[in-house]
Amino acid sequence: MNEKERRKALAQFLRTRREHISPSQVGLPPGTRRRTPGLRREELASIAGVGTDWYTRLEQGRDITASAQILESLAHALKLDRDERAHLFVLARKQLPVDPLPLTQSVDPTLQLILERMGTYPAAVVNHRWDMIAWNQATRQVYADFNTMSARERNVLWFLFTDPRQRTQWLNWEEEARSKIAFFRASTQRYIGETWFTELVNDLSASSPEFREWWPRHDVQRTHVKPIYFNHPLVGLLIFQIKIFHIVDDPDLQMIVSTPVPGTETASKLTALSASGLREDSTFC
């Protein structure tokens, strides 16, 4: 979408939302001489606390800039829901609004069933804090028994940097750890300054000399393109390609699947591991 089309789409969106708001919804008398449905431009501008001329130009698709604060006022005045508010920000500023998402700590039965249907492929769901909140049996058999861990211990970064077993099980632990830091920074940049973010970074810096050294480098990475090499204590080397899927109906969540690299013995080893019938209380990881 080019700039002209973006401004046109913003103008159309604002106009349609304004026309859906009745005067009674905002405490105004209905009046008898309204030529168009909904609120007048000057009424909406007054409610949002912006100038009528400025708002008119915005709704006409003119090339003007709207701050996040003004967009919040417009979203409130237009009574936009969560999805509509996000759409407004994308059209006006080409970015999502920066606000704390509600912390998701569990998944619904349907998503858990999808994890289980991944079969021998390790699959897990993480929230925006990188806390692992759901996983399948294959994840426990390959990586660790997350059923026995606290929420902090299941945080992907915390697990990688503070669990001593990870340094020997990852063939290239340093490369993987630095990559995870860069990926975490890129995917959580909108949460910088939030309490949970600051606490996690501070606690990791205090607990891990490597994290304390690498975090200030400000490396950023948005994709995980290289295979990962993991030494399993029972079946030996496993080689995975990581695939990440965004949960459309819950933007707080991502599903991470460890997919066996074709041409390796990983798939057959996962099948053997699954068939071995490891108990729920297995502690080999």
UniProtKB/TrEMBL annotation:
UniProt domain HTH cro/C1-type: residue ranges: 13-85
GO molecular function ontology, one term from the record: DNA binding
Gene3D superfamilies: 3.30.450.180, lambda repressor-like DNA-binding domains
Protein name, as recorded: XRE family transcriptional regulator
Species the sequence originates in: Ktedonosporobacter rubrisoli
